[in-house]
Amino acid sequence: MFTESLSLGWQVSLVGIWLGSIILLAESLNRFARIPTEISRKIVHIGTGNVILLAWWLNIPMWIGVSASVMAGAIALLSYKYHLLPSVDGVGRHSLGTFFYAVTMGVLIAWFWSINQPAYAVIGILVMTWGDGLAAVIGERWGKHSYEVWGMTKSWEGTTTMFAVSFLICSLILLIIQGNIWQTWLIALMVGLISTTMETISKFGIDNLTVPFSAATVSFYLNYWW
Questions:
Q1: If we measure between CA atoms, which residue out of 139, 64, 115 comes closest to residue 224?
Q2: Mean per-residue pLDDT for 74-98?
Q3: Residue 216 CB partners (closer than 8 Å, separation 6+)
Q4: Disulfide: which of 43, 90, 161, 193 matches 26 by Cβ 3.0-4.6 Å?
Q5: Taking the CA atoms of the chain, what radius of gyration do you get in angstroms?
Q6: 60 within 8 A of 6, measured Cβ to Cβ
Q7: Distance between CA 51 and CA 203 in Å, rounded?
Q8: Beta-carbon neighbour count of residue 99 at 10 Å?
Q9: What angle (nearest 5°) sits at the alpha carbon of residue 109, between those of residues 106 and 115?
Q10: Are the C-beta atoms of residues 200 and 149 closer than 8 Å to each other?
Q11: Which pTM was predicted?
C-alpha cells in the first residue's frame, strides 16, 4: 500500500508541510491582506484540525502526534503571551483556546492510538474542527436569532450548524469503520446533541476541550456498550 511505502521521515514531513502551510496562509492573509483576525483564526482552527485525517490515513506513530501537540501547545502559549502569531491570537483576545486545542489533540491521539481505535480521536477532533469552527462562522455572519447562556450571546443558526455538522461527521466516520447499522445513526445523534450542548455552555475557550472529549468519549463508549 502507498501509506506503508512512505518512510517515517516522509510521514513527518507531510504532516509538517500541512500544518506549516495552513499557518503561513493565515499569517499572510492577516498581515498583508488585512483580513480580520477572527477569520484567520478560523482558517487555522479548521485547517490544522484536518491533519488528524492525514495522521489516520498514514498511520502516523502515536509519539509523533503527541510530540507535535506538545510543540503546538508551547507555541500557542508563547503566541498568547508575546503575540507572535496574530492570525492565531489577536491582541486583546483573552482566551487559551488555541492551547486547549493542542492539548486536546495530544491527549486524544495518545488515548485512541494506544488502543488501536484512532477513528474515535478523528471524530472528536473533527467535531471540534468543523462543528465548532463553522458554527462560529455561520453564527457571526448569518446569525439573526440570538439567545444568551451564562452571559454569552449565541445564535440559533450557529447552534443548528454545530449540531448538523457534528452529526454528519460522526455518521461518516462510523459508516467507514462499521457500516450502515442502527448504532451508527443513534450514536451520531447523541454525539451531535452532547457536542452542541458542550459548545453552547463552555466559556473562555474551553469548548476546545469539552467538545472533542465529549464527542470522542460518547461515540467510543456507546459503541462499546451497544
A1: 115
A2: 71
A3: 108, 111, 112, 120, 121, 123, 124, 125
A4: 43
A5: 17
A6: no
A7: 25
A8: 22
A9: 145
A10: yes
A11: 0.88
Cell of 17: 508541510
Residue with cell string 462562522: 137
Here the cell at position 197 is 450542548
Helix axes 37-49, 8-31, angle to 10 degrees: 170
Cell numbers given for 138: 455561520
SS (H, E, C) the chain: CHHHHCCHHHHHHHHHHHHHHHHHHHHHHHHCCCCCHHHHHHHHHHHHHCHHHHHHHHCCCHHHHHHHHHHHHHHHHHHHHHCCCCCCCCCCCCCCHHHHHHHHHHHHHHHHHHCCCHHHHHHHHHHHHHHHHHHHHHHHHHCCCEEEECCEEEEHHHHHHHHHHHHHHHHHHHHHHHCCCHHHHHHHHHHHHHHHHHHHHCCCCCHHHHHHHHHHHHHHHHHHHC
Cell triple for 130: 468543523
List pLDDT tens digits, range 102-158.
999 999 999 999 999 999 999 999 999 999 889 988 988 888 888 988 888 889 999
